[in-house]
Every structure is written in C-alpha cells, then in structure tokens.
Amino acid sequence: MDQFRIETIATTDPAWSDLAQHRALAAQLGSLADSTAGAVTRTGGASADGGGGGDVASGAVPTGSTVATLPAPRVVPTFRPDPLLHLDQPAWRTDIDRLAAAADTQIGDYAAYLAALRERRRAFVAAGGSATDHGHLSADTTPLPDDVAADVFARALAGAGVTAAEAAAFSGHMLFQMAAMSCEDGLTMQLHPGVLRNHDPERLAMFGPDKGYDIPVVTEYTNALRPVLEAFGHAENFRLIAFTVDEDAFSRELAPLAGVYPALRLGAPWWFLDEPDAMRRFREAATGTAGFSNLSGFVDDTRAFCSIPARHDLARRIDAGYLARLVVEHRLDLDEAVDTASDLAYRLPKQAYPTPADAPAGV
Amino acid sequence: MDQFRIETIATTDPAWSDLAQHRALAAQLGSLADSTAGAVTRTGGASADGGGGGDVASGAVPTGSTVATLPAPRVVPTFRPDPLLHLDQPAWRTDIDRLAAAADTQIGDYAAYLAALRERRRAFVAAGGSATDHGHLSADTTPLPDDVAADVFARALAGAGVTAAEAAAFSGHMLFQMAAMSCEDGLTMQLHPGVLRNHDPERLAMFGPDKGYDIPVVTEYTNALRPVLEAFGHAENFRLIAFTVDEDAFSRELAPLAGVYPALRLGAPWWFLDEPDAMRRFREAATGTAGFSNLSGFVDDTRAFCSIPARHDLARRIDAGYLARLVVEHRLDLDEAVDTASDLAYRLPKQAYPTPADAPAGV
Amino acid sequence: MDQFRIETIATTDPAWSDLAQHRALAAQLGSLADSTAGAVTRTGGASADGGGGGDVASGAVPTGSTVATLPAPRVVPTFRPDPLLHLDQPAWRTDIDRLAAAADTQIGDYAAYLAALRERRRAFVAAGGSATDHGHLSADTTPLPDDVAADVFARALAGAGVTAAEAAAFSGHMLFQMAAMSCEDGLTMQLHPGVLRNHDPERLAMFGPDKGYDIPVVTEYTNALRPVLEAFGHAENFRLIAFTVDEDAFSRELAPLAGVYPALRLGAPWWFLDEPDAMRRFREAATGTAGFSNLSGFVDDTRAFCSIPARHDLARRIDAGYLARLVVEHRLDLDEAVDTASDLAYRLPKQAYPTPADAPAGV
C-alpha cells in the first residue's frame, strides 16, 4: 500500500458480511491476496507510480507528494447485494437467512427484507463504505407496485415458485429500491450490467462460479435506466455509475444520458474493454457528448492486488495519449489537458465516491 | 445571410402551416432566430467562411466567388407532418383540425386525410420547398392494407381508442405513404429515426417538449426500410435521406443499403454524432461500402442561425482531414480529394435537395 | 495458380455435388472462372506477390521460396449444405432428392437424411475437403429433441406444412448436428450468419438469387453459439470459424467467446467489412481480447479468381500496418511482429483448415 501510494482501496463484500474479514484486512493492509469469495478490489485515486524514487511512470500522476506525507491508507467495504436480489439464484433462500442473521432480525416478509438491507447498508456506511456494486444481466430498473413485489417475494420465501420473468422483474425492481436507498444514505451506486455468467455449464461444474466463461450480451440503457433517472436523476445526493462491456452503447445511449442527468456518471472501461485500444475508443466515443466531468475517472477493478499500479499506469497513459491528441488538434490547451489528466486520474474518482464526513479514517 | 454566403436555407414547418411566417422570414431574411415552434433550420450548400476578407477558414470551401456574385439567398419551407402521423400524440385530434383548415377541406375519413396531406405538400412545393422531414421512433415503413389503415384512422378520429401497437403500425404505414407521395411531387424525404423523446417527464412538464432529454435507442434499418426500398428504391424521382444517431448501423445496415438502392442516401452525422470524432467515424465506417456519391454531403440542422458557419466549417475540416488521410495513404489522388471535398460541401447537398424547376426563386 | 503461388484453393460445392466438376477444375487448375453455381472460392495461405520476379508486394509475405519449389497446388471442395437445412427454401424438396441421388440412398425420414448428409461429408473428405460452409440468417445452434426434429422433417418431406418458426428452429438444430459431425470427421465448420438475402424481390426476379441486395442485420452470438460451444467448445477435433458482417459484435461477443473456447476462431473480415478501414477496425477491436492465435488469419472468399492476389495483398498490408503500430507503441517487438505477420498470412489459416492426412494430394 505504501509502495503504490494507495489512498483508498475498496473491497467488495456480500451484504450479509459481518465485515470482520474486512476489518482484518484493513488492519493488516498490504496483504489483500486472500480476499473474500467473489470479492473484487476497487481503487479510487490510487497512484500508479512505483513510489520510492522520483521516477514517475505516468505524466498524469500528480508529483511532489511523497510516501511519508500521504494520509494513512484506508480500506473500505463495498455493499454487494446481488445474490439477495435475484430470486432464482440457487442459494437465494440460504443467503436470505445469512442476511437475517447479519441484520439480527427475522425476514418473514418483503418489508423485513427491505429493512434488513437498509440496516446492512448502514453498517457498511459506518465501516467507511462509499458505494454499492450491482452485477445484473439487464440494466432494467423498472419498479413494481409494492404489493406485487411483496407477493413475488413472499412466494419466493415460501419456496412456492417464481417464474423466470417474475425473478427478472424483481431484480429490476430491487435496483430501483437500491437507488432510492442510495438517495437516503449517500452510497454511490455502481451498476455493471450485460454479462451472461457461466456460459459453459461444464466449466461451472468443474471450477465454480466467477471463474471465467462470462460473456457480454447486448445491453440496453435508454429505456432500462429511465425509471431510476426519472425518479432520482436530479437528486443532489444520488450518484449512479454505469459501467458497460457493450461499447456500442457509448455514443448512442450512455454519453447522451450522462450528458443530461446530473446523477449519472460513466464508469471506466471494464473487463474485456480494459485493454489499450478499447480504453482509447471509450474516450473517443463518450467524451464529445458526455464531456469529462460526467465520467467516473479511472477506477480499477481487480482481484490481483499487484496489478493495481500497472492498471492505473496504463489508464493514465491512454488518457494522456487522448489528451495529447486534443492538444495537437488545438481542441484543448496544454494546461487544460494537464488539469484534465489529474481530474481523470484523481479528482473525478474522489468526487464519484465521496466519503461520508463521519466515516472513521482507517475503518 | 450575405456574410455567411448562404445560398439556400430551409426552415421546418408543420404540415398545417399557412407559411405566412415562413414568407415573412423569407422577406426579411437575416433574422431567423424566432422561427416557428419546433422548427429547425437546415442549410444545404451553405458556405462556412466568414465572407468579407480573403481568409478562408476551410480548405474545402470553393474560393474565387464573392458575395456580390452570389445568387439571391432563398429561404424555403420543409414539410414536417410528424404530429399528424402519430395517432397517439396528445394533440393529434386538434392538429387534424388544423390540417383540415389549412387544406380548406373537411377530414372525415382516411381518404380525406391523405388528400389534405397531398394538398399541403403541393403548397410547400409551390413555396419552393424541396423536402419533407420525419422524426419517428422507429424507421419502420411497413404499409398496412388500405382498409386496415382506414379503420384505424376512423377509430382515432372518433376518439374510439387505438392501441399503442396500432398507432405505431399506422406511423410506419404513413411513412410508406409519404414515400409514395414523394415519388409524385419530388420532395426529398428525410428520415430521422431512433430518438426516444422527452425521456424525463418532469423536465417535459417544466419546459415543454423538444427541450432536451431526448435519448437515442437502437435503430434497425434493414427490415424497417425494406418496404419503401422494395417499392421505390429504384424510382428515378425518389430520394430518401436516412439520418441516424445509432452509429452502430453505419457499416452493418446503412452503407450496404445505400450501396445498392439508388434512391437512398446517407445523411450527415446529426445531433449527438455532430461532434468531431463521431463525424470522422461516420466517414470511416460508411465510405468504404457506400462510397461518396451515396451520401447527402454536409447538411446542417440547427435552431441557432449564428452556429451555421461554425458547423459547416467543422464539417469541412473533418472531411478534409479524412480525405487528406486517403491521399497520404495513396487511396485517392490529391485532385480527386479536392473534387470530393467540393462534392461533400456543395454539390452532393444540392443534388440531394433538387429545386423544382418551377419554384419561385426567392419564395 | 503458379503465378500467384497458390498452395490450396477451396471451391464451395452443394452437398449433393458429385464433385465431377470439382475434379475437372482440379485437373485443369488455373481456369476456375466458370465455377459451379453459387460457388465461392476460398484460399487459405495463398501468396499474394506476383511470383516471377523478386518484387514482393507485401512485407508480410514469406520470401525465399520460389515457384519451382512449391508443392503442387491443391484444389479441394467445401461442403455447403445450406439449401438442405432450410426447410422453407422453395427448392428444398427437389434438393433433398438430389441429396438422395448423390448419396445413392432413399431419404424417407430424418434418420436417412442425417445418414445421407454424413455420407456426402465422407465423400468431400475423400476428395480432400477440409471444411464446411454455412450461411444462416441467425447464428442460432439450439438443438431440438430428436423426436421433434424428426417430426418437423417428416412434415416438410410430406409437404404437410412447416411454420416459419419451425423452419428456423430446424436450421439451428441442423447447425448443431453439423458441429457434431465435424467432431467425427474433422471438417472445419465455417459459419457466416447475419445476412438478409434478396432484400429486393424485384431484383431477385430479374437476376436470380445471390446477385447482390443482401443486407446485414444485427447478429447475436453469445446465446446463439452457446449450445455448440457448451457441447463441443473444448473438443480437440473441432474447429468453428465464426465470420460476421456485424462489427458491433467484435469486442462484445466474438472476441470474448474466442478467448475462452479453444474450438472457436474468428474469421477474417468478410463481404462489406472486407475494405481497408473495416479490416483495421477488426484487428483493433478483436485482438486485445482474443489475441492473434484465436483468429483464422486471412482467408479470401471470392468468386473472381484474379482478385485473389489483390485481396491477400490488401489484407497483408492492413495487418502489417496494425502490427507496425504495435511496434511503434512498444507493445510488440519487431521480431514478434514479423512472426505474427507470417502467422496471420500463412500459418494460422493452415492451422484453421488442417488437411486430413489421408487426403489425396491433388484430389
């Protein structure tokens, strides 16, 4: 952590996590290799140069600060409720029991379920968390009428059968509820839709979930995000960061949406798009319409701690290359480009994931 | 108009417009800021340099002509029947009455409706108009059987209820009818599909329609345009210009379609794609298959009169940059590139919007 | 053949072809202009330089070999069963009779149909064939239960009516069967989906099928290829080469799929994408995720024999340009780029279309 000059690192934790493992991680720092199952690390504003010497790898890195003067690194949890929102997940019923135990409550109906989720979000905020993370197949955020949601939930809880369509609709409904709760507690909402998980069932049986064989699908945002953006797109306390692995949506849907709704920011290229040419295409497709200030800036998303500096370094080089082109084409002045480089590498991610004022500094 | 050396400017007017405001505009010229509600200005072949001095901003601008030798600028109307073709528009019934009044007729059935539209098109042609303009959510042009169309129309007229699916099908049917009428009267047909209007209903309530919050959606052309292209794609008197805000369709659908159907031309990048990088991507994605001669050339589409020279200047710079690349790569000779630059800036738009020989010169 | 230094050329032949014409072609070589109806020539590993002199047109061409030392050119057939797999093709019933005659059998039911197809594949293998070729509207490969497939087939055979949905489902089912047979006989499976044929029925009536007016449509691969990839994606003896004219699927679907399934390779840009800028976009969109070794390398697909060297030359120039960029950006060393150029031009196509050891050398 010192060597990489990382200010903040966020783990991703199940909603039912007691955050003990997270706290242990925060205590020991520097050895995050054995993170929780399904956990990804996200780093906002991490510095990618090697520290130590004065040899700064990327021109986009603010220099002049030294390891000694950095604030203490902070490790914060991220609230990931996915398995609880997808009624057709095999372990859903068990996971609900875990949620109930973590929230120290009984979950006998939909209202108790919402209350338990709200309670766990409070615990994550108290532990310094600044965001939630949502991996859905579709970006749909259409709310159901409360009584319909309550009925579907009750049937799922009773094991009385829920159709695939009902489960999908409930997932979208719960994204809407998560957005509503974000307006209350200030957690930045991260949405990573459009990946068909476990494409090869034989590999799934051999290695378990989240071991590759996840393949993107066409992802629609204009209609799918409309309910949340209509309701909260201008809410001052709401930030929705939309990631995508379908780059075809950059100029058609995501950039125009981010251009008008203050709450929406576009996430950095992710997963299959997290390679040099795709990162460059993102800048070129999104910036003309969305501008720089509607982007999240570079946020890494890795399970490999040691890859963090390389990923930030690469992102900064790509951004610097894009900005250099704008300077050469007289579309930006050099000083504006240097400022923007710092925005993309540092200031925008900090703004996108604000820290609650009352959060403990080191968890 | 003199300073910008604009040869022709087209306003967009409702089908029921008596064109009085248009004639006033044409008379006073030079002060178009207060155009009709919903009006956009389209300029074909406008010159983007500042006139006056000899300092030509864009290398693509034909030089040597001076303001003094330009023909008198012409201001022409464009026929926009959108609200009359969408049976589910809130003001549809009122707008039908406006159409009837403008056409000096009664609209009691589908046949009278078609006749009134045909009559208004004639009035636009007489006023020097060269085009129609159509903003539909889908590019669908599937005709309905006449009796089905007549029945749906009769129910809408009687306020007896039309389903959303029927309204959508009727809109597509009417695009086909508009194409058929264009074959008769020679008006170039402009289609701008694929924008979901008024994405945020709260903003709509605050500011009214067409004030932003319009977001593109996936737009299909291969099947949607097939009925019109089957019927009129080789008609000598028919020109269909397809615009898009879904650049994913450039190489897959639009360029191949424009490459085979003589009547189809690809419109210039528009709206969210009207920015430097997207304009360049359009050239690079469409030209290899469609060639230059199946493009409309640059046609501006603005409500801000003073933006016209800047927009033409930008378009010419992007085109010149693309052509320069082809020259450097030995794919075009320099003299061919210079010729093509003039085609894109001036000759192609003039061809795409031919003036009826009998149209009055200044309206 | 000598002048172009072509090692192998593959014609495309109907499944019922007795291959007599093919054998005649192979015997006479050098005069392929009058190939069979619907035939396309595919050339793997063809050399694009003009032979004769030492003037090598493309830097990617391995030099040092001379015409005299080349192995005898081989002309091999490619198995194209399309008309037999689409139950709603007008000539389907007639074509089934042709298949029965070619296989010297009776086709009275679904089992006999499969057996006849298997028998014809054996004949193609015996004639040196290395691949099958499939042009379907959709990439769907979902197998039907055997009894459902048998029932649909029986009704089609009896002329008793098959719905469009049943015909489409049967086509997908048969793609799965073709993949299964490829695992048995080792024929590389080529899939070219996503083209709506005969867009203009009037042109179809005037000139017949496959004379232009074929337009791409959105093509989905992630779900469509899943059944075949689940079943055979790791089979050692299976190679599926997926072509596309929907470049929007490159980074979203095709590259991620090719990255995980060893059996899948991405075909070279084809048809409307077989132009300089689209070829470059393919490299830039697919390579970051799929790498070079999951590509087929350049495979030409033309009906014009004399276009072969020009097409290979162009492909090699584009590849060399892309590789040069990677060298300049320090992403590849020069010697790696040179090696990769040979892979793309020669070694990868040879690997993608392996020759059965027992195939006769000159047919």
TrEMBL record, chains A, B, C:
Reaction(s) this enzyme catalyzes, per UniProt: D-glucuronate = D-fructuronate
UniProt-listed InterPro entries: Metal_Hydrolase, Uronate_isomerase
Pathway: Carbohydrate metabolism; pentose and glucuronate interconversion
Gene3D superfamilies named in the record: Metal-dependent hydrolases
Highest taxon above the source species: Bacteria
Membrane-crossing segments per the record: none
Protein family per UniProt: Belongs to the metallo-dependent hydrolases superfamily. Uronate isomerase family.
PANTHER family: URONATE ISOMERASE (PTHR30068)
Name of the molecule in the record: Uronate isomerase
